[in-house]
Design brief:
alpha/beta; single chain; 5-stranded mixed beta sheet; 7-stranded mixed beta sheet; N-terminal domain of TfIIb; 30% helix; Rossmann fold; 2 domains
C-alpha cells in the first residue's frame, strides 16, 4: 500500500489543523504497551503505605491524564498540571468520558501555582527528567514543598543514567501502527548527561485521504531533551529545597536502587515552609 507523506507546514484547507499539532494526538497510541494500570497500583500502594488514603493529590506533568484518571478512580481529589495544551485537551476528553471531577491547569512545572496545599504530589512517566537546566530540580522541589500539606508526600519517578547510557544510547527506533508511525532518533551525551531524541511522526489525515482516495499522512517532527540525574544529585537537590528524603526504590519493587535500575521511584516529605 502506497502512502503519501506531507509536511504539516504544507497542509492547507478548511479542515482542523490543530488536531495534529504535536505528538499529543498519537501519544496514547504509541504508549499502549505501557501497563498503566499496574503502574497505578504500584503508585497507589506507595500512597497508602505512607498514609495518603484520600484527599487532594496533584499529578505534575500529567500529560494526557491517564494516571490522573487512575488515581481519581481510587478516590483521590485530583488536579493535573501540564505545559502542553494539546495533552490537556485529550486529558479533558477523558474527564468528560469518565465523569471524574478533575481540575486541569496548563502550567510550567517549574512555575506551577495551586489554590492551596495538597496531601501529595505525584509525577510519573519520567516527567522530572525534562528538567534539564541547572537549578530546575531544586526549583520544582521548592514549589512542591510549598504546596504540600505539613508532612505531605512527593512521589516521583525518573529514568536513570543506566537506562539512557545502556538501553537507549545512540540508536534509531521505528514503529508502525494502522494509522500512524514514528521514527525515534536517540542520542545520549554522557558528559552532559543529556538525552536527545527527534521524533518524526507520520499521522494519517482522514480528510485528505477521503478527498483523494489515497492514504495520505502528514509528517511532524519534535525534539525532546531529558537529563539523567543520579540518586545522589536528587538527594542533594531535595536537601537544598528543604525537603526530607524518605526512600528510593528500583521501579515497581521495594528494592533499593541499584546499578542496573532503569527507572527509580523517589519519595520525599514536606519539611516546613
Amino acid at each position: 500500500m502506497i502512502r503519501w507523506y506531507l509536511p504539516v507546514t504544507a497542509i492547507k484547507g478548511d479542515y482542523n489543523l490543530e488536531a495534529y499539532t504535536s505528538f499529543a494526538v498519537v501519544y496514547d497510541t504509541f504508549m499502549d504497551n505501557v501497563p498503566y494500570e499496574e503502574w497505578g497500583e504500584y503508585l497507589h500502594g506507595l500512597l497508602l503505605e505512607y498514609g495518603v488514603e484520600d484527599g487532594l493529590v496533584l499529578d505534575l506533568g500529567c500529560g494526557t491524564g491517564t494516571m490522573t484518571e487512575i488515581l481519581a478512580s481510587k478516590g483521590y481529589d485530583m488536579t493535573g498540571v501540564d505545559f502542553s495544551e494539546e495533552m490537556l485537551d485529550i486529558a479533558m476528553q477523558k474527564r468528560t468520558k469518565s465523569g471524574h471531577d478533575i481540575l486541569y491547569l496548563m502550567q510550567d512545572m517549574r512555575e506551577f501555582e495551586l489554590y492551596g496545599t495538597v496531601r501529595a504530589i505525584v509525577s510519573v512517566c519520567d516527567s522530572m527528567n525534562y528538567l534539564t537546566e541547572d537549578g530546575d530540580l531544586e526549583q520544582v522541589f521548592r514549589l512542591a514543598n510549598n504546596y504540600l500539606d505539613p508532612g505531605g508526600l512527593f512521589i516521583f519517578d525518573m529514568n536513570t543514567e543506566y537506562k539512557y547510557r545502556e538501553m537507549l544510547g545512540d540508536q534509531t527506533i521505528a514503529e508502525e501502527r494502522e494509522n500512524c508511525s514514528f521514527i525515534w532518533d536517540n542520542y545520549y551525551y554522557e558528559e552532559e548527561k543529556i538525552n536527545e531524541y527527534q521524533l518524526s511522526l507520520f499521522v494519517e489525515d482522514p480528510v485528505l485521504s477521503e478527498k483523494t482516495g489515497q492514504d495520505i499522512c502528514r509528517k511532524f517532527q519534535e525534539m525532546h531533551y531529558q537529563r539523567a540525574y543520579s540518586l545522589a544529585e536528587v538527594k542533594a537537590a531535595l536537601e537544598v529545597a528543604g525537603m526530607e528524603f524518605i526512600a528510593a526504590y528500583d521501579a515497581f519493587t521495594r528494592n533499593p536502587v541499584h546499578q542496573e535500575s532503569e527507572r527509580m521511584y523517589i519519595i520525599a516529605r514536606e519539611q516546613g515552609k
